[in-house]
Amino acid sequence: MRCWQVHELGDPIDRLVLDEVEVPEAGTGRVVLDVEAVGLAFPNVLQCRGEYQVKPPLPFSPAAEVVGRVAAVGDGVGGLEVGQRVVSLGGALADQ
């Protein structure tokens, strides 16, 4: 699947790279989404520059929030079903 990632800190325009990565699996307690829309905010720019208080390990996929539909539900997840529209937070500049 396609995923925008930062491999080196700096200006997001220069540092965001469109990578092909493995499709995630819905492990225990996890859900996989088909991403429909993402939100980016200034803290995401600061993360790309290494200037935000939260510093994820490289490479990372910056994004503030995501809207999509549940594609798969892992064991131990309740209240969600495949096809349901949901919103989530973080790391969502990807197809799933």
From TrEMBL:
Coiled coil: none annotated. GO terms for molecular function: oxidoreductase activity. Pfam families: ADH_N. SUPFAM superfamilies: GroES-like. Residues 28-87 form the Alcohol dehydrogenase-like N-terminal domain. This is Alcohol dehydrogenase-like N-terminal domain-containing protein.
